[in-house]
Design a protein that fits this description.
Chain B: It comes from candidate division WWE3 bacterium CG08_land_8_20_14_0_20_41_10. Chain B: This is DUF4325 domain-containing protein. Chain B: InterPro entries: DUF4325 (IPR025474). The complex is a heterodimer of chains A (320) and B (94). Chain A is α/β, with parallel strands linked by helices and 320 residues long. Chain A has a domain of 219 residues: Histidine kinase-like ATPase, C-terminal domain (Heat Shock Protein 90, 2-Layer Sandwich), CATH 3.30.565. Helices cover 36% and strands 20% of the residues of chain A. Chain A has ten helices and twelve strands. In chain A, strands 6-7-8-12-9-10-11 form a seven-stranded antiparallel sheet, with helices on both faces. In chain A, a hairpin with a 1-residue loop joins strand 9 and strand 10. The longest helix of chain A has 23 residues. The radius of gyration of chain A is 20 Å and the shape is globular. Chain B is of the alpha/beta class and 94 residues long. Helices cover 54% and strands 17% of the residues of chain B. Chain B has four helices and five strands; from the N terminus they run βαβαββαβα. In chain B, the strands form two sheets. A three-stranded parallel sheet of chain B has the order 1-3-5. In chain B, helix 2 runs parallel beside helix 3. The chains are: A alpha/beta (320), B alpha/beta (94). Chains A and B meet through helix 5, helix 6 and helix 10 of A and helix 2, helix 3 and helix 4 of B.
Chain lengths: 320, 94
C-alpha cells in the first residue's frame, strides 16, 4: 500500500489525495509526504494510522518528513501509533486548545474515557462541545457495531480558532458500508450503499424502518445534518466510493433532507478501494442554530424520511 | 410507581448503549410486564444520543405498542434531552 500526504488535503479538495492512495500489496505500507509543506484534514491522518495498524511496524516504510510542518505529525502521534521512529525532535507542548491526537478506540470503556478527556483537551465551553461529543460518540459506536474491525476506530481532531471549526477524522479497516447494508438491502455498488446508510431509518441490521431494538439507522444522518446546519463539509469514503456533502452558501437557507441525493453534494466511484469506512466532518463552534434547535430540525426531517420510506413499501389492495 | 435515576449509571452524557440495554432489560421490562408505571429520571444528564435513547425505549414501544407511553414518564429532562426523546418516540410511531 502507498499513501502520499500532499501539500493540502481537506474535505473540499480531498479527492486527489484519495485518488493517489494505492491499496495494492496489503502486507506493507509506504508513506511519503510533500517536502515543503503538509496541511491536511485529520481524516487523512486517521486513514494513514488506520492503514498502518494493519501491518507490522517493520513493514512500514516512511521517508523522513522534510516539510516545515513535519512537527505537527509528531505531535498528532502519527509515528507513535505506527510504532516507527520519525527522527523529528519536538519540544512537547501542552496540546490544549488545538488538537486531539490520533487515538485508537476499541471498546465502550475507551470511548467513554476518550469523550471525557477530549473536551478539556480542546478547552471548549461545555455548550460548544455538545455537537462534538455527539458526533464522536455516534461515529465510534458505528465502528464498534458495524465494522467488525479488530483494530477498532482511529480518530483525531483539530481545532481551527480562526474559523472556529473543529475538523474530525475517523477511519476503520473493517468490512465497509456495502457489506453491512447488504445484510438487509440489495445494493450492488459502494456509492449506493453509502447513500442508503445516510437515509434516516435505514440500518444494515434489519429491513424494518426504525431499526432493531439497538440500531435505528440514524447516526450518519444526524452527523450529516450537524455539518449541514453549520454549512460545513462532511464525507464518507468506503469501498471505491466517496460521498461528500458540500457547503451550503451563506446566502442560501439550510434545509435538511432525508434523501442524501437532494443535498448539495458530490460523489465519486472507482476510487482506490478502501477496505472499511472513513468519515470526515467539520463542525462549526459558532453555529447559527444552537444544538436544541438543530435537534428540532433533525426531528422534522427524520420524521419525513421515515414516512417516505414507509410509503415506498405501502401496498394497496388489488381489486380484479 | 418506580423511578430509575439515569445519571448515576450514565454520567452527564448518556451515550453508552450497553448501559441503555441493561436498564431496559433489567429494570424497565420487568416493571412493564407487570403493568406498573415507571419514571426515567434524567436529572443531571446534560445530553443523550439518539442511539442511547433508542436502545433504552424503542423496543418498549414496539413490544407494548405506544400505550406504553401512558406508563413511561420522563423527568428532569432539559430541552436537548427532550428533543432526542421526542425524535425516537416520533419515528417509533410513524
Amino acid at each position: 500500500m502507498q499513501l502520499h500526504l500532499p501539500n493540502s488535503a481537506f474535505i473540499g479538495n480531498i479527492d486527489a489525495f484519495l485518488g493517489s492512495f494505492d491499496p495494492s500489496d496489503s502486507g506493507k505500507l509506504e508513506i511519503t509526504a510533500n517536502k515543503k509543506w503538509i496541511s491536511v484534514h485529520p481524516v487523512a491522518l486517521s486513514m494513514t494510522a488506520a492503514l498502518g495498524l494493519t501491518v507490522d511496524s517493520e513493514d512500514i516504510s516512511c521517508e523522513p518528513f522534510e516539510a516545515k510542518s513535519r512537527h505537527y505529525f509528531e505531535r498528532m502521534g502519527l509515528f507513535k501509533l505506527l510504532g516507527i521512529a520519525s527522527g523529528i525532535k519536538v519540544i512537547e507542548r501542552e496540546p490544549a486548545g488545538r488538537f486531539i491526537p490520533l487515538t485508537q478506540i476499541r471498546n465502550s470503556v475507551e470511548l467513554t474515557d476518550f469523550i471525557a478527556e477530549m473536551v478539556p483537551l480542546l478547552h471548549l465551553e461545555p455548550i460548544q462541545a455538545e455537537p462534538l461529543k455527539y458526533v464522536v460518540a455516534e461515529l465510534v459506536r458505528n465502528v464498534f457495531e458495524h465494522s467488525c474491525s479488530p483494530f477498532g476506530a482511529i480518530i483525531c481532531a483539530q481545532y481551527y480558532p480562526d474559523t472556529k471549526i473543529i475538523r474530525i477524522g475517523i477511519a476503520d479497516t473493517g468490512v465497509g458500508i456495502k457489506r453491512t447494508i447488504s445484510q438487509s438491502y440489495a445494493t450492488g455498488k459502494d456509492v449506493s450503499a453509502i447513500k442508503l446508510a445516510l437515509v434516516p431509518g435505514v440500518t444494515g441490521t434489519t429491513t424494518r424502518i426504525g431499526g432493531t431494538e439497538t440500531n435505528a439507522g440514524a447516526g450518519l444522518f444526524f452527523i450529516k445534518s450537524i455539518a449541514k446546519v453549520g454549512r460545513n463539509f462532511f464525507m464518507v469514503y468506503s469501498g471505491d466510493a466517496l460521498y461528500k456533502l458540500l457547503r451550503t452558501e451563506q446566502d442560501r437557507p439550510v434545509r435538511l433532507y432525508p434523501d442524501p441525493d437532494k443535498d448539495k453534494h458530490s460523489e465519486k466511484e472507482k476510487l482506490p478501494y478502501w477496505q472499511g469506512t472513513v468519515v470526515g466532518v467539520d463542525i462549526g463552534l459558532e453555529q447559527e442554530a444552537d444544538f436544541t434547535t438543530l435537534l428540532s430540525l433533525i426531528r422534522k426531517a427524520y420524521s419525513e424520511g421515515v414516512k417516505e420510506r414507509k410509503q415506498l413499501r405501502y401496498k394497496k389492495a388489488r381489486f380484479v | 410507581m418506580s423511578e430509575i435515576k439515569l445519571f448515576p449509571k450514565t454520567g452527564s452524557f448518556a451515550e453508552n448503549k450497553d448501559i441503555a440495554r441493561e436498564i431496559r432489560l433489567n429494570e424497565l421490562i420487568p416493571v412493564m410486564d407487570v403493568g406498573e408505571s415507571v419514571t426515567l429520571d434524567f436529572s443531571g444528564v446534560d445530553a443523550a444520543t439518539q442511539s442511547f435513547v433508542h436502545a433504552l425505549i424503542s423496543d418498549l414501544i414496539r413490544k407494548y405498542t405506544n400505550t406504553v407511553l401512558d406508563k413511561l414518564l420522563f423527568k428532569g429532562c432539559n430541552n436537548k434531552v427532550k428533543e432526542i426523546i421526542n425524535i425516537v418516540i416520533d419515528y417509533m410511531q410513524e
